[in-house]
Amino acid sequence: MEILEEKEEEEQREEEPKGLKISDNLQDVDTTVSAKQVCVPSDVPDFDWSSIDTSQLPSSYKTNSLKEKKLLHIADHFLRQYTHLCPDRKLLFLHPVNECGVEKFVSTTVRPTLLPYTELYHWDGCASFVSDYLTMEPLKSPITPPSSLYSPTTILKYQRGNCFDFSVLLCSMLIGAGYDAYCVHGYATREMCTLDKTLELCPLLREPQEGMKKSNKYRVKPPPDLQSKFELQQEAKKKAEIEAAQENKEREEEKVMEVEKCKRDPLYGLRVHAWVLVLSGKRDVPETFFINPFTGSSHSTMDEHFLGIESVWNHRNYWVNMQDCRNGCKGHCQKCKSPLLFQREKEEEDMSFDMPPSWVAPVQITPREFETRCSQGRKVILYKKAKLEKWAPYLNGNGLVKRLTVYADLDCAEVVEVKEWFKNREDMLEMREVNKQTQLTTEYFSPGHLLGLKAHTYTSLEPETERTMEFYSEARVDGLQKRVKNAEEMTEYFVGREDSLHVRHIEFRKRGKKIHLAGTRTEINSQPIAQIKECFHRNLEKPADEDVAERIFLITENMIHLTYHLKDKYITASKKDFYKETESDRKGNEIFVTPGMWSSEKDKKQLHLYKLLQELTKEEKWLKQQVQQSEAEVLNILKICENEESAVKLSVSIYNTERNEKRREQYEAVVARAHFEQDLDYLAPFLIQIGHREKMTKAQALRVRDECLTDLKHRLIDKANIIQARFEQLQKKNQWFQKNRNRLSAEEEDDFLTRYSESASHIHTLALRLNREKQTASQKYLALEEKLRKDPRLAKHLGHS
């Protein structure tokens, strides 16, 4: 046991102003405080700790060893001296009783443990697990430490405890993970002691802080800023006025909240709390910090919510704070690294004493408990204008694990925004944001979606409403990165294409009047196209006046505009305008080119222009097909999203044997089939034809070998033919749908759209299987031939053949 700082001179202590020491006046105040003034969460159910079963606990829980008894004797001796030297201080939290009613020194209750989960190897993972897994219980008296301290194993079993139970468990996990961690007994504000976060901003709503960038001596000078300074000043002025108005509004709301809810706490500075201290050094921790075990969040040691420290301890030692706590915990934690030994005890008895090992059994957490996390699978935290809900994985059928609801007022009556996080969904949906004011929904998908979808923003799943789709461009053949579509236009953005295309913009015409036939669905037919515009990046392999920068196909006007990249030292770019001939007057009509076109001498030849026009006409026809495919893909994605949301499927890892019963049954079936095949004789159908297997001639052996190889050859060919037939059948179905799509009934089209993505995946899979069968057929044939040559029944006849 050690002391952080020697006792100050008695004269200086007498001159100290009133701080956090418990004087006679403060003790009088304590006795007058009624129980109604103690803030206790209303949602914490009562639990009778006296009813827990301790009969199955190890003997170390029920008795003390000789070394533990000696430690308790030393602790009592130290406590008497401390009380004599500091009569105005509260009694130390040294040796409370455990769940069996046996006194145990607090340092021996800490059991360093490293659990076999990657997340629990880092401090934030440990803190998050403890805050989620346990249910908070307030102290019986908010101004005195508890009389008991149960083992971490019991706390984990019943998933509940007070701040001291939280801290001991978290400290045990952090020390086991290699951190220099300590339990702290001190004082904190009412909000922290009672887990009241209604005045704090939710961590998920805080803007991430940008890290400090290191200055580089040899950096390239940035280009000059050509923006108007006056305009920037005006914009900054407007922005400052808006921010000031917003701050004033929030300040007024906070004042109202403080008047109504946060009146002066009569127990300010007296509320007992326990938390965890992590010192810098080990595990590359750059700076010392606190962890509030109730929330799992880190705090600076200068945080004003921590008002004072009485003592700190770990599994090896115990320290008492003798410093002035008038300024909170500022500067107290740095002296834990160089403690002063309790020299009077050592000088008198002239002996050294090592801390006995922990009496707590090994801490264990099953995979199911680690996954479930929250008590009863759900936890709700109220923040300032926000509510955070957490669920265990697989508890909700739609994979929902976290929901953040943001409100416009402090009373949490008007919902502004809802954010939801998902896990283990087969459609790879990861997050969904819903703006309740604009009804704008944004869904985010992790890599692996069937169509490479990354994000989808929409107000409705109706086909012709405005929406934005983002894709994983590296997972698509066309390099599509983003698609923005509404009823009038569609814009597609591309990345990494060989033709340098990066933007394609399509404008649609209004639909004409259609004759509705019975059972048809004409409202989702391809929209008539008015214009297609494409933009290209510069291709350095071509001259600038031959490299197209922009081309516009005016479908309704039968015109094509070409704009080329700008050449060096030129002010204007080369352009070409083509007027296409119509079907009625194709004969005798010439190609018209705008007189304002700039081009080289060779481009003036009619033949060159005619060939260019033919190429552009083919491109226009191909682009129309691409636009129709894009429209069909949008409808397909909408249909898939609608079907997936109506029947959500959750994926289960093959390593999760508790939930994945189907996988386990498949594995057992494969193992049983493998054993069965081992018992089969692959030569039995051929040996039975020759009758006498023991007396086999060379001719019979050669006949058995040839028949066996021929049978394998036929089976390989049949298998390849079946795959080829299925591949061609799916291709024909896809081509038939593209041709007859406008004549399908509503039910037929819905049925095909639901199966379109599956058929596309099957076509790709069958193509891969067919290619693999062709490549491995010869290898299988040679492998069987070698196996027959080494078979003991045929080896003596085929060894030299």
Q: Mean pLDDT score, rounded? A: 79
Secondary-structure-based class equals alpha+beta
Q: Mind telling me the C-alpha Rg?
A: 39 Å
Low confidence ranges: 1-43, 210-214, 337-350, 514-524, 583-603
Biggest sheet details:
16 strands, antiparallel
Q: Walk across the major sheet and give the strand order.
A: 11-12-13-14-15-16-17-18-19-20-21-22-23-24-25-26
Number of DSSP helical runs: 17
Based on CA inertia axes, which overall geometry fits?
flat
Kindly, what is the distance between the CA atoms of the first and last residues, rounded to a whole number of angstroms?
88 Å
Number of strands: 26
Helix content: 25-40%
Strand fraction band? 15-25%
Pfam family, one: MORN_DRC7
Main location: other
Region (Disordered): 1-26
Family: Belongs to the DRC7 family.
Overview of this structure, please?
This protein is an alpha+beta fold. 34% of the residues lie in helices and 18% in strands. The chain has 17 helices and 26 strands. The chain has a 16-stranded antiparallel β-sheet with strand order 11-12-13-14-15-16-17-18-19-20-21-22-23-24-25-26, with helices on one face. An 8-stranded mixed β-sheet has the order 7-6-5-4-8-9-1-10. The protein has a two-stranded parallel sheet with strand order 2-3. A hairpin with a 4-residue loop joins β8 and β9. The protein starts with a strand and ends with a helix. The N terminus is likely disordered.
